[in-house]
């Protein structure tokens, strides 16, 4: 199967000083996974043009097909994401007529003039398209460059979700073949992770198309609780997912674990 | 002033599929900032030896003095962080006597034997020291290599906090000169971010040692709420922080904003 690889880039000093929890990357990685993407990495960098440019460039090296960035799109001097994207690929920043119309419309509907700070939000790298922001004023940016789809979104979570749903999702659905994501989840009480480890390894070796991971949730020594998460992509791997799930259940039973099935093998959505 | 730069590396597929929110990186970046570090970047990669090795190596290129990783330290086959660290610097993985003693003690106190999965947690890159894990069984790892301090911590947040406080913090306090962190925080109601932007820029230009950032919290058009965060490092920059704070207050008042001071300039801790 040909997987689509994605990278998430979070931009903003507030994420690096422990002020803001990066819920955007968490939400986006879930959405992309459900759409069949393998999220390859998440990178957080500060509001610095050359840092941002390097991060966008690294997407080409990592051979991902899609990049979504959040943050640094606003009217202030330290909102530098678009400049970073332009620098990454040596593209000029040009005043985009469509973006300017979107910005003008937002402000003029409130009787506010176009100032340099507002016009700044309409400068995009040559070849980009603006994405309407139904929850804010800064338009998102879509650029397809060297075969990679770059989506540049604002920072506030409400705006990220709005732009993703209105503009990003439809483009992804049009441009990429959908691969379904399937998962199963169960917890096992009473078996330390180190005791169950050989069975997890064995399951992963038997069912190669299933990704199996155990997460220690309780206290390894004393009251162990192990969460086992199984995932696969593509309907053709559904039977392997079911067999792997049965194998884990059986192994846990044999060792005397108490099992709670949280999610039977099935579609996530 | 000579700043100490740090990098945080989060390891685990669960962070890339949207299953787990990366609270570890958020907590650690706050702790490091309070100790005077500039957190330069946060990177999340999957449980893959070569990905982990590249990420550790990139710390050398980024010229950071300290790296903290979380995740991938347990007894299962897909806990590969230590192997990744060893590969990054071509160090052999050796059975560390001190680490083995720590692991043995934990399990034997419960009458559990040393199995290959448990012994695995005592293999460290040559030259490393184990860090006791008061909240779990996998020891952390400390390696000083090419002048960079690498701290490899487990994944569960409870264990991250325990190892950080018992082992990492004392080493940092011994090895790095402490630089104090100061901040101020206020919100301004009634002024759109795009209108206040020139004042934020002006403040940043006047008070070079202060980092000023505005975060839109309300709705730019309609009910704007702007949070302004000011930070600086080192007691010698305290007066600039106070002046910058006054400048922001005065500018917001002049524009008719409603101001709420959330934190006067002062020590964060």
Automatic annotation (TrEMBL), chains A, B:
The organism sits in which domain of life?
A: Archaea
Q: Kindly give the SUPFAM superfamilies that the UniProt entry links to this protein.
A: Molybdenum cofactor biosynthesis proteins (SSF53218)
**PANTHER family, per database record:** NICOTINAMIDE-NUCLEOTIDE AMIDOHYDROLASE PNCC, NMN AMIDOHYDROLASE-LIKE PROTEIN YFAY
Q: What Gene3D superfamilies does the entry give?
A: MoaB/Mog-like domain (3.40.980.10)
Question: What NCBIfam families does the record point to?
Answer: PRK01215.1
MoaB/Mog domain: from which residue to which, for each copy? 7-174
Q: Which InterPro entries match?
A: CinA, MoaB/Mog-like_dom_sf, MoaB/Mog_dom
What name does this protein carry?
Answer: MoaB/Mog domain-containing protein
